[in-house]
Design goal:
Layout: H1 2-20, E1 30-36, H2 43-54, E2 61-65, H3 86-98, E3 102-109, E4 114-115, E5 118-119, H4 121-125, H5 161-176, E6 180-184, H6 204-220, E7 225-229, H7 236-239, E8 263-267, H8 275-281, E9 285-289, H9 294-310, E10 319-325, H10 330-338, H11 351-358
Parallel strand pairs: 1-2, 1-10, 2-3, 3-6, 6-7, 7-8, 8-9, 9-10
Antiparallel strand pairs: 4-5
């Protein structure tokens, strides 16, 4: 009996160790992971991934790109086919809570209202919100193109757009029980277009900042924090970063106009540029976001730790950490991560390898 009792104590100690082991002393405030929300069929595998891969790496923040992959009650007309149910979202909430992971939903706002030749749900159902209704979707999408079409945007000054947007944001934040919301807002190529009857000719930096303030104020009224990608706040010409990881359409000055209590997700995928310093010096909290280049991601992680170690007491809290980004669907990423999918041409530069390089298990 004593032997059995001793074995029980050893087993209990091991269980406690595996679930209660604190993160490393030098851990970053945000150790994040961003991916598209799983579909219903892939939910069990994704829940297991949270428990067996994210939690042991001390991931404490999970951003799920939901968009219209939820069965909205406020706007059922905007649901994707086979979208997640409320009960399925609650499984995500409960799993993350069990592992002390902050769960943050994302809906792409302002930009990314289309992709390639497809208009996404918001503009498909509410075409009046389109910033560029005269730009027609091509039968075969190519870049570059005469219209400068990358992704459509909604018009931030349309009088009806925010009623719909706020209802979506409130519902998704409520069901995810979240204290933060990610609004996307990256790669906004269409804003303040001359032909737009409402915002044509207006200052594009002021328009962008105005939309950030509008979203921030709505969220703040419910004690929630706004997260956005940071590329539109960087000057693509001055920095040499170009039109994708920074702005070439005059929105960069918005960095001095946006509220200071938002979170900037600063993504750089091809080079480990040190732009977190710029955002922190502007008074903004910032996290660095790699994708698929493990060597670059390691340098970005070192930079973030160095920034925190050498910063003044005022600057240090603004360097918030790292977030791995994944730009495939959840099923494809899990197949890549576990080696069960089709081999890629480049087996080194993958989001799975990048994730492992930044966050060791």
């Amino acid at each position: 009996m004593k032997k059995l009792f001793a074995l029980f104590l050893l087993f209990a100690a091991n269980i406690s160790f595996s679930f209660a082991m604190p993160p490393p002393a030098d851990t970053l405030p945000v150790r994040g992971f961003c991916i598209a929300a799983p579909r219903s069929a892939g939910l069990p595998a994704f829940l297991k991934f949270i428990a067996t891969e994210l939690a042991p790496r001390h991931i404490n923040t999970l951003v799920l790109r939901v968009d219209f992959n939820y069965q909205f009650k406020s706007h059922p007309e905007l649901r994707d086919p086979g979208a997640l149910t409320e009960a399925e979202v609650k499984q995500l909430v409960q799993t993350c809570r069990a592992h002390q992971i902050q769960l943050i939903p994302q809906i792409n706002l302002l930009g990314h209202q289309s992709w390639a030749g497809t208009i996404n749900n918001l503009l498909k159902v509410y075409p009046d919100f389109d910033e560029t209704p005269w730009v027609k979707m091509p039968a075969k999408y190519e870049w570059p193109n005469a219209d400068g079409l990358y992704c459509k945007s909604y018009c931030p000054l349309h009088p009806g757009v925010h009623k719909i947007v706020f209802e979506l944001v409130d519902e998704i934040c409520d069901v995810f029980e979240s204290t933060a919301f990610h609004a996307g807002m990256d790669e906004v190529f269409y804003i303040g277009e001359e032909k737009c009857p409402r915002c044509g000719g207006r200052d594009k930096a002021e328009l962008f900042a105005g939309e950030v303030w509008t979203l921030r104020n709505h969220l703040a009224g419910k004690q929630r924090v706004l997260w956005i990608w940071g590329d539109r706040l960087l000057d693509g010409k001055i920095t040499g970063l170009g039109a994708w990881e920074a702005s070439m359409n005059n929105t960069a000055r918005a960095v001095d106009l946006v509220p200071k209590d938002i979170m900037i997700c600063d993504w750089h995928y091809e080079r480990p540029d040190k732009t977190p310093v710029y955002f922190a010096m502007k008074g903004l909290s910032v996290i660095t976001c790699p994708w698929r280049m493990p060597a670059n991601a390691k340098l970005q992680l070192k930079d973030m730790n160095d920034f925190r170690a050498t910063a003044t007491k005022d600057m240090k809290p603004r360097y918030q950490g790292m977030m791995q980004t994944v730009w495939s669907d959840a099923d494809s990423f899990l197949a890549e991560f576990y080696g069960t999918g089709k081999p890629q041409k480049d087996m080194e530069h993958t989001s799975a390898n990048c994730f492992r390089a930044v966050f060791e298990k």
